[in-house]
Design a protein that fits this description.
Structural class: alpha/beta
Distance between the termini: 29 Å
Strand order of the largest sheet: 2-8-7-6-5-3-4
Radius of gyration: 21 Å
Helix content: 40-55%
Order of helices and strands: EHHEHEHEHEHEEEHEEHEHHEH
Shape: globular
Number of strands: 12
Number of helices: 11
Largest sheet: 7 strands, mixed
């Protein structure tokens, strides 16, 4: 089987697996304990924070460890809403955000907050001017994803962040960087970004680990209360083994980023060229998008039929995002991009990783062609 679902989750680096195992075996003490075992665990925790911060080009005190991007996104959005509600209750996002962001805002709407959901263009990108025009006197937060998890569309977050700080310096800017870090350059210190979310298992790290960059001086209301861990922002005993494994994955992902980008672009472009060969198919990803995601629709066919046919042919892909793929509703992202409901119900995401080669793409293209042959007689039957 060939695995092309790296946007959903990735196989951990062998060094990450070794690190998690060794740290779990040796550093099992609570990092908050004051005995020697606890102090050793705390030293490893502090070292991990320093390495992550250095990799991101920020201060160690600006790194908050979490259980993953869902928690990081919830912490950023709800933490700002609860801490700064006295300034206002208006917040801005887009209609194509990941569920962990989108549903956080839906929750806040029910709590009395006013949320502006911005549209995107046909390539899935939000316009800078739309973001700026949506800001009001009572706006406290703008939250955008860096790279869309379904189509790979890249939002101009650095440009948006810098303009926000020039025109509306009190507005806080959060970016969901889950599909961006390790794939494209991430600049935090001069981009106007106040909060940035990262997930370990998207970059060959362990599941259950993530982080949130929180700019110095910014305060968040904690979602988890109890102890004083993570600067009082996130109570609970730190998971040292997973944090250590994530730290190694973050360092390796950034070290390999440029080479990975150079390798994936031609592989991605070959896939796009293949999809363009079929007039019945609609390419939903753009050449200006991320290097690791190719998304297309086969209107008239159900996405799960396409997925299982490809799986029978030895290829693993996905429909929508992993968080939504078990539901049969049309893709919210594709509908917002102006795609038909048929196209939104038949979307397939192919996502690449560092293990993939030209030979793998040859096999994938062969599977796509064979899938088309098998399903051609059923076109339109599943509408």
């Amino acid at each position: 089987m060939l695995y092309f679902d790296y946007a959903a989750s990735t196989p951990p680096y062998p060094d990450v697996i070794t690190t998690v195992s060794e740290v779990m075996n040796r550093h099992y003490a609570n990092a908050s304990s004051i005995h020697g075992y606890g102090e050793n665990a705390e030293k490893l925790l502090n070292k991990s924070r320093e390495v992550c911060a250095k990799t991101l080009g920020v201060k160690a005190s600006e790194i908050i460890f979490t259980s993953g991007a869902t928690e990081s996104n919830n912490m950023a959005i709800k933490g700002v809403a609860l801490r700064y509600h006295s300034r206002g209750k208006h917040m801005i996002t887009t209609k194509t955000e990941h569920a962990s962001v989108y549903e956080s805002f839906r929750f806040l709407e029910r709590m009395g907050y006013d949320i502006t959901y911005l549209p995107v263009d046909s390539k899935g990108r939000v316009k800078v001017e739309d973001v700026l025009h949506a800001v009001r006197k009572d706006t406290i937060l703008v939250s955008l994803m860096h790279v869309n998890n379904e189509t790979g569309a890249i939002h101009p977050v650095a440009e948006i962040g810098r303009e926000l700080k020039k025109q509306h310096p009190k507005v806080i800017f959060h970016v969901d960087g889950v599909q961006a870090f390790g794939k494209i350059k991430v600049e935090l210190t001069h981009s106007g970004i106040d909060l940035y979310s990262i997930s370990a298992h998207k970059i060959r790290g362990p599941k259950g680990a993530g982080l949130l960059y929180v700019r110095s001086g910014l305060e968040l209301a904690p979602l988890l209360t109890g102890g004083s861990q993570e600067g009082g922002v996130r109570a609970g005993t730190e998971n040292i083994p997973l944090i250590a494994g994530m730290t190694k994955a973050i360092r390796l992902a950034e070290e390999n980023r440029s080479d990975l980008y150079a390798r994936l672009i031609p592989l991605r472009d070959r896939l796009m060229e293949e999809i363009h060969r079929y007039p019945e198919w609609e390419l939903n990803s753009s050449p200006e998008g991320a290097p690791h995601i190719v998304h297309f629709s086969y209107p008239g066919m159900k996405a799960e039929v396409i997925l299982h046919t490809l799986e029978q042919l030895g290829v693993v892909v996905s429909t929508q995002s992993a968080c939504s793929s078990k539901y049969t509703e049309p893709s919210r992202v594709l509908l917002v991009m102006g795609k038909s409901e048929e196209a939104a119900r038949s979307g397939i995401r192919i996502s690449l990783g560092d293990v993939h080669t030209e030979e793998h793409i040859d096999q994938l293209i062969h599977a796509l062609r064979e899938m088309k042959k098998r399903l051609v007689n059923f076109e339109g039957w599943n509408r």
